[in-house]
Design a protein that fits this description.
- The protein is built from 10 helices and 4 strands.
- It is α+β, with helices and mostly antiparallel strands and about 220 residues long.
- A 4-stranded mixed sheet has the order 2-1-3-4, with helices on one face.
- α1 links the parallel β1 and β2 (about 30-35).
- α4 (about 90-105) runs parallel beside α8.
- The protein starts with a strand and ends in an 11-residue tail after the last helix.
Length: about 220
């Protein structure tokens, strides 16, 4: 596979997930930035690429476009199986997906930019209450997630074993975005340890928002 184009935004947590996945796989890609706060993702040109107007989207060298970060990550895992993002055993794969979905399906949908903007513009919620909303929904998942990770012998240096995978992509990106809302990570020793192990790897460090060409 060559000629990949990643349509993304430096601060988007779903984009962070996919940048880390591409880095882990050692795949080169062209970086196409779409500034979400300026509405560039709603331009007619981008809506042709992804009618949802969401990032990330991965454009393949044959012109086909993949959307939704976890679907793209699993596609990459099938095409480029080493290093694997999912374990081989069905039960282990289910565990990793459950950990990933706990973040991608429980936290992200209520805390992404368009939801927070809707709270501001339609309901008049101020920034302090927006931050409180964000922290509440992260905590609703991080409290049980910490228990799930700390209490399972399948947890190693990373969410599942000693190599990073799909769940770590989600966990890492979520914690990166938590910084902007002053979410207190001190109660979550296992989650913090996994994050630090991720950050020590170039694949994750190079996916950080501040490392991107459109960083502000």
């Amino acid at each position: 596979m060559s000629g990949l184009v990643l349509h993304n935004y430096f601060r988007s947590s779903a984009s962070i997930r996919l940048r880390a996945a591409l880095n882990l796989k050692g795949l080169d890609y062209s970086y196409a930035a779409h500034h979400l706060r300026k509405g560039e993702n709603r331009s007619q040109a981008y809506l042709v690429i992804n009618p949802q107007g969401l990032v990330p989207a991965l454009e393949l060298d044959d012109g086909k476009v993949l959307t939704q970060s976890l679907a793209i990550a699993e596609y990459l895992d099938e095409i480029h199986p080493a290093p694997p993002l999912l374990p081989k055993a069905p039960l282990d794969r289910a565990r990793v997906r459950a950990l990933a979905y706990a973040i991608a399906c429980e936290i992200h949908p209520v805390n992404n930019l368009r939801v927070l903007n809707h709270l501001r513009t339609v309901f008049g919620v101020d920034d302090s209450k927006i931050a409180a909303w964000y922290r509440h929904w992260v905590g609703e998942t991080f409290v049980p997630l910490e228990t799930m990770l700390a209490g399972d012998t399948s947890t190693g240096r990373f969410c599942h074993g000693d190599e990073p995978g799909l769940a770590d992509l989600c966990l890492f990106a979520q914690i990166v975005n938590n910084r902007r809302f002053d979410f207190d990570m001190s109660p979550f020793a296992t989650i913090r340890r996994i994050y630090e192990n991720c950050l020590a790897m170039p694949a994750f460090a190079n996916a950080m928002p501040e490392a991107q060409i459109d960083a502000e």
